[in-house]
Amino acid sequence: MYNETVLEHFREPHNQGRLEEYSAIGKVGNVVCGDVMWMYILVATNADGSDEVIADISWETFGCTAAIATSSMVSDLAKGKTLSEAIDITNEMVAEKLGGLPKPKMHCSALAADALNEAIYDYYTKQERPIPEPLRRRHDRILRHREEVEKRYEAFLSKDGAPSADASEGQDSVCS
User: Fold this and answer.
1) Fewer CB under 10 Å: which end of the chain, C or N?
2) Which of 19, 33, 36, 131 is catalytic?
3) Are 116 and 27 in contact (CB under 8 A)?
4) Cα separation of 146 and 36, whole Å?
């Protein structure tokens, strides 16, 4: 199912963990598949002082093989890049650098690229700087998608016979 590059990034993930010192964090998730990703970036000025770069990056991911591999690859692609270069990293680039992903797992590459973009968005917000238009559009798309998924999930839970959020209160586990 997975090629050797994907498996290498899963078995020996690059830049995994939480940076002790970071400038910003991006968090994304998908309630349908259960994947959750946190991307930490440390931003610094490059050697000649002309631009800001991602001096260090790390991530924490709760998810499948593809989610872990794509988080690892995004961190490799973004490290040392200027913020504008990092904004341009797409899920297609991530999947290509991994040598491809099974079609049902392409959403993992989108989540990883989105986590990076959300970290950059968080950085610009904390610095009270104007958000570049491509980053703003991506952030808005992420928010719209999150809201849509949450609405669908709530609609599913509210159907007759589906457990409500209150139904699990007081239980030690949702599994019997």
Assistant:
1) C
2) 33
3) no
4) 12
pLDDT of 163 reads 52
Q: Residue 160 burial by CB count (10 A; 0-12/13-18/19+): exposed, middle or buried?
A: exposed
| Per-residue confidence (pLDDT) for residue 160, from 0 to 100 | 59
Assigned token pair, 142: 């992420």
- Residue 26: HSE in the Cβ half-sphere, 13 Å Cα cutoff: 30
Burial of 108 (0-12, 13-18, 19+ CB in 10 A): buried
* Cβ-contact 122, 42 below 8 angstroms: no
What is the per-residue pLDDT for 174?
A: 29
Cα–Cα dist 77/109, whole Å? 12
CA 74, 65, 62, 11 torsion: positive or negative? negative
175 is annotated as an active-site residue? no
Helix (H, G, I), strand (E, B) or coil at 53: strand
* 86 token code pair: 């990092």
Q: CA-CA distance, 78 to 117, in Å (whole number)? A: 10
Catalytic residue, candidates 89, 108, 120, 142: 108
One-letter amino acid identity for 51? D
Residue 89: closest CA among 108, 73, 107: 73
Q: Which stretches of the chain drop beneath a pLDDT of 50?
A: 164-176
